[in-house]
Amino acid sequence: MKFDMVVAGVGGQGILSISFVVDNAALAQGLHFKQSEVHGMAQRGGAVVSHLRISDSEIFSDLVSHGSADLVLSMEPVEALRYRQFLSPDGWLIASTNPFINIPNYPEEEKTLEQVRSVDNHVVVNSAELARAAGSHHAQNMVMLGAAGHLLPLENKHIEQFIGVLFRAKGDKVIEANLTAFSYGRLAGSLYRDLLAAGLASADADAVATHLLPWDYSREDVKGWIELCRADGSGELRSWLRTHQGLINGDAATRKRLASIDLNANSKEDLEALISKTG
């Protein structure tokens, strides 16, 4: 078994914390591990990238070759595109939808996300809102680690153990927020993949999965949201979801309310009022 990943982002986004958790979780499972890091100017928002290699046999190099990564995990969309050249043909690109605008000519956000979504195997998650919902806006890196959890050759119990170790000095409240963030990222990433697998267009899967509060969804929930998107001929619902501040419940009660109205005839204000009744 061999698993190569590249973790990318900007200084201050917790790239090295992700590396710490993955590193120690791998060692706890008796696996071999090598890591290489490039640190940017963190105070100026410089790029940071970490190469992580896991194997059940000895590893001789700590660098991931271009075209060989099983996973590129990025804390923001432009950095995802910067490092997608490392992906193998079957590799996965997992990125946050939240930009870190540290340059004056930062690319147009929607066009950047379109390029991310053009990668065959991809997942996008709203790390900022998920971290906030989990209890700490600093926990975006654990959200992203959760979104990648289905790929990692690591058991969740080991990942969660070392999330606890990483934040031990900050107390139980911080540990709990980061564990919840990890769980939210896992659920949000899974929902996104399931929506795509069921035939929803990537832009619509983005609109839905990145704007719902994570929950233990069912196959019927996935089917229900796809039906709502297909009934939304004018795109009013999807447009509203993309611009809505915060996360909404994705449960059957919310879908039932939305299905009870003519989506194409209602304004965004009407949708806000309707969703507020599900609180």
Can you walk me through this structure?
With 279 residues, the chain is an alpha/beta fold. The chain has a domain at 2-171: Pyruvate-ferredoxin oxidoreductase, PFOR, domain III (Pyruvate-ferredoxin Oxidoreductase, domain 3, 3-Layer(aba) Sandwich), CATH 3.40.920.10. It has helices at 15-28, 77-83, 109-117, 127-134, 140-147, 156-166, 172-197, 202-209, 219-231, 236-243, 252-259, 268-276, and strands at 2-10, 32-38, 47-55, 69-74, 87-96, 122-125, 212-213, 248-249. The strands form two sheets. Strands 2-3-1-4-5-6 form a six-stranded mixed beta sheet, sandwiched between helices. A two-stranded parallel sheet has the order 7-8. The relative contact order is 0.11.
What is the number of beta strands?
8
CATH architecture of the domain at 2-171: 3-Layer(aba) Sandwich
The helicity comes to: 40-55%
Given the structure, what is the number of helices? Answer: 12
Along the chain, the helix and strand elements come as EHEEEHEHEHHHHHEHHEHH
According to CATH, the fold-level topology of the domain at 2-171 is Pyruvate-ferredoxin Oxidoreductase, domain 3
In short:
By secondary structure, this protein is an alpha/beta fold. 46% of the residues lie in helices and 18% in strands.
